[in-house]
Amino acid sequence: MLQVLVAEDEQWIRQSVVEMIGRIGGDFTVAGEARNGEEAWALIQEVWPAILITDVMMPKLDGLALIEKIMAHRVPMTFIILSGYDKFEYAQRAIRFGVSEYLLKPVQMDQLHEALRQSGERFSEKGELNQILVTFQNLLDRFDPEDTARFYRKSLELFERVLLMPRYDGPTKLNLLRLFEHKITASLRDMQSPLAPGPAIELSSEDDSVKQRLQGLLEEWVLRKNDYDKENHHLSMKKACDYIHVNYRKDLSLTQMAKLTNMSISHFSLWFKKYAGKTLVQYIQEVRINKAKELLRDTSLKAYEIAEETGFSTQSYFVRVFKNATGMPPSEYKKRIGS
């Protein structure tokens, strides 16, 4: 299954693309949604998607600048550009970054399907690198303070696996190790740890020194996290959930919710998933669907009116999400509940 991240600041376009990917199905599934480049970059470092679909013009960090940042960090991904601007300079810049799929709005489903297929084929050679990043992310996300020995052992095994990969050259291995380092140090900064700068990771015949550098960072991360987890994040996450239940009609974003709880985007995303058991997007959709059920039971509103009342940008998107959640379209749900 290939995870897709959709970055688009216009809600109705973003949800339209998400809906089309849902209809296309097959090997493609939406891993997350972002309404600006900053949110997208934070989510990339949490879900490590295979494919990024991004608008060119977005606030805070535009699509091409986002791709440039991803390329600078050499994150294994492929890209699809969306744009309402039919200008050659955008295509030129996109080509320089290795983007071969450039779709003009409004996007047609057959065009998107083909772009996803092409991107999936290009991604296949990067799949092993992506899986290593996902594995490391899972180790961090599922950290158990009662079993730190296992955490260290699995982490060191993963570092060793990277160092011994026969298919890849030194620079590729080095980049993966630096992504590990970047992930750990970013998490430490989120926890406001006074991190002293260390030597840059470099591959040499002294592979043990590389592992020792990363192990030292992990040890600091574990020590800080054990203390940090004792702080009261429960109230912050409850505050976020309460806010969603009141404001579910709005186009709520990671940026907005992180600001509400005084956290970074990546930190909020991680903690919300731990607290709620699902991503922010999934939680918001669950709240909206529950409200839609209530309206279907207690009012005579039409489907398009309920879609608008519950924060869905289009009736078709509302119907698809409702059917995925309940196993039936809204009309059948209303009929059954009324009988």
UniProtKB/TrEMBL annotation:
CDD domains: REC_YesN-like
Pfam family, any one: HTH_18
Every Response regulatory domain range: 3-120
The keyword Phosphoprotein belongs to this UniProt entry's keyword annotation: yes
Modified residues (4-aspartylphosphate): D55
Keywords: DNA-binding, Phosphoprotein, Transcription, Transcription regulation
Occurrences of domain HTH araC/xylS-type (ranges): 238-336
Protein name: Helix-turn-helix domain-containing protein
Organism encoding this protein: Cohnella boryungensis
